Every structure is written in C-alpha cells, then in structure tokens.
Amino acid sequence: MKTFKRNIILTAITLIIVFASYFLLRLSGDTAAQNDLLDYINNKIPKAHKLERQALDYYESVTGVNRVNDETLLRKLNTDIIPTYQEFINELAAIKPKTDKVKNINKLYIDAANAQYEAFMSMRDALKTRDAQGLKAAQHKLIESQPLFEKMRTRLAVLAQKENVRIKEADTKD
User: Fold this and answer.
1) Which of 9, 23, 26, 123 registers the highest number of CB atoms within 10 A of its CB?
2) How does DSSP classify residue 130?
3) Using CA atoms, how far apart are residues 164 and 172, in angstroms rounded to an integer?
4) Would the pTM of this model clear 0.85, i.e. be above it?
5) Concatenated DSSP letters for 61-77?
C-alpha cells in the first residue's frame, strides 16, 4: 500500500512539473515574440522608416502639385529617390528578427518595398525613353504597391495587439 501511495504522489508531482514546464515554456515563447516585436518597432524600423520617408518626400517634391516636368522627375529619381529607396530596402533586409512572427512582418514590408521600388525603376525607364504608356504603367504599379503596405501594417497591428504591444504613430516628418 505504501508503494501505491508513493507512486500516486510521484505521478502527481511529475504531472505538476510537466504542466508547469509547459506553461512556463509557453509564457517564455510569448515573451520572446513580444520582446522581438518591441525591438523591431523601437530599434530596427526607425532608421529604415526614416529612409523610406525621405525617399517619398523626394518623390512628392517633384510630383502632384509640385510637378515641374519629366526631366526634373527623371533627375530626382536617379539622384535621390531610387538610391534612397534602395538604401531603405537594404536596411529592411539587414533586419534579422528572432521570431517567425516578426520575420513574417518584415518579409511583408520588404515585399511591399520591392514592389514600390520596381515602380520607381519602371518610371525612370519610361521617362528615359519618353514612353507615355510605360509611365502610366509605372504609376499604376506604384498604386498597386499600396495594398501590400496596408497588408503589412494590418498584420503588424494585429500582432502588436496579440502581443500586448502598443504602437505609437510615427512622426512622418522626421
């Protein structure tokens, strides 16, 4: 009878240890994703975001109400927009998140940025060859890249909410 009680007690202790370990590992995993997301938002993305904003400011300075002519846009694409945007993509690619959740967000961001970069490159090529249809197609590519950015922002917001991380609205005019 003593052996039976002892076995029951040992089994109960083992089960307690197994369940406690499971919950601690689960909690640790959640903390890892939360910490990775905080590092991504607070330390990794700001430099990249600043480059993105700079490239888009350059673009806005020669398009829309600020548009002068095709030559000015072409020059700005070659000297400022494309090189700065490439630097932005390189900065995103250099970010190495630790968790799959944050890696997926960063991959979405890179995919969206690459789509927009391709639009800028197409725009440059169309302006070089004075191809009006190519320019329209490039502008359309630029518009088509926006849902990719929205998808990334939405997934980031969902992950942040799930991981109990508050995202402060970025100052877009750094």
Assistant:
1) 123
2) T
3) 24
4) no
5) TTSGGG---HHHHHHHI
Task: Tell me how far apart the alpha carbons of residues 126 and 25 are, in angstroms, rounded to a whole number.
Answer: 55
Task: Look up residue 159 and give its two tokens.
Answer: 């992950």
Measured CA to CA, the distance from residue 84 to residue 58 in angstroms comes to: 9
Structure-token pair, residue 174: 């750094």
Encoded tokens for 23 = 């919950």
The token pair at 34 is 């939360």
- pLDDT over threshold 90, residue 66: yes
**Cβ atoms 133, 143 nearer than 8 A:** no
pLDDT greater than 70 at residue 11: no
Q: Please give the pLDDT value at position 167.
A: 80
d(CA 121, CA 77): 8
Contact (Cβ atoms closer than 8 angstroms) between residue 117 and residue 89: yes
Positive or negative torsion for Cα 24, 30, 36, 38: negative
What CA–CA distance (Å, rounded) separates 93 from 41?
Answer: 15
